Amino acid sequence: MRRVALGVVILITVLTLVPTDLAQAALCNDAIEICEIVNSGDQVDIAGSAIAPGHAEQDNSRMESPRSTEPDDCATATVCRDMPYKIISVPDVTIEDLASFRPAAPTLTGEPFGFGVVGLPANVVAAASEQRLNGELLGWDVTVRFRPAGYVFDYGDGTTLRTATGGAAWAAAGQPQFTPTATSHTYRARGTYTASARVLYSAAVDFGSGVWRPVPGYVTAESGAYRIEVLEARTALVDRTCAEDPRGPGC
Amino acid sequence: MLPRIVSGLVALLLVGAMVTGCSGQPAPEPSTPSAPTFATDEEAFAAAEETYRAYVDATNAVDLADPATFASVFTLLTDDAAADARKQYSQMHAEAWRLSGARQVVLVAVREPTSEISVAALNVCLDVSDVEVVDPSGKSVVNTNRPDVQSIAVELTSSAESPTGLLITSIDGRDGEPTCDG
Known about the structure:
heterodimer; A: mainly beta; Immunoglobulin-like; 7-stranded mixed beta sheet; 3-stranded antiparallel beta sheet; B: alpha+beta; Nuclear Transport Factor 2, Chain: A
């Protein structure tokens, strides 16, 4: 019975006294903390140790990194029973550990849908949004949050674009058709092109404490192919409309 | 027979003239995405430096007591990075901390981007020795191990919405050259 009560106390303290995540984010708070080396690749771990003292207050006098060091006699992810407070370590997580958590692929579309005109902007839009997936990671229940960090468009003609946004439809952007947008592309020659887009998601994990711990690196999700038939537009002066003369030039 | 052939040729020529010479269609533009691209690495570096210096200026203008001053910081960040910044500033505001002093950019150098979404990256030395953050009691909340000059890596991606054409995706620590010691 006593052990059960102890467990309850530990659980509560873990949930309430996990250090703030102010100190470790993708954006270094250079005024307060030590800007830590975070390789944007996928090899560097994040650490996370949750100090859970019985009734201790969190010391905000120094914004220490959450990488607290466990005493030698405390095993990882266990309770150190000989101390007046409890230390519980959540596991280190790398971007590779998130392989079983797959964010949804972005949708890719364009306008005019499936068509473009040589010399005029074709609007290509990728849509992705924040996602939260629940599961188990390294033996812990976890919620993984994926947030779109950037997009890489491949327009199928050898041109790529790396950008912060997935773009927007002309109407949504309040723009007329065939005007440049953040993700539009102007093809130089007629033909059929296959465009695609990759979304790079930043990831963060929450082991139930309510604290999001960023995971260095990105998880990539690729859209399906979007085929664009690019045509040449030619104008002609006519004296009657196509309705009036269906066999007229360009009709 | 001949007149019909001639008239047919004339008609063809007229249509041809209308289709080509009188079309008014502009010549095809270069195959360029609408988001800013940079002709040279030097242009990209210059835009990246301008963006980062604007970010530092914006952070120096922040008054933690006035959230309206945070906005100019967020506009230089991607949505993802801005979400982190909002959290940082909201928390500091909620704690009623006070920020004083100014950051100084000591060095900016080109860096090889490490992320696929990055258009440019910078190695930065940022002097924060003058920056102090205190809680309502006046006690410093700065990490005692914070270096006077931070060694920082900045990554940026393109954005049509940014005046410089770039937005910051991440700001992290770094090691290696150029060092920021002394």
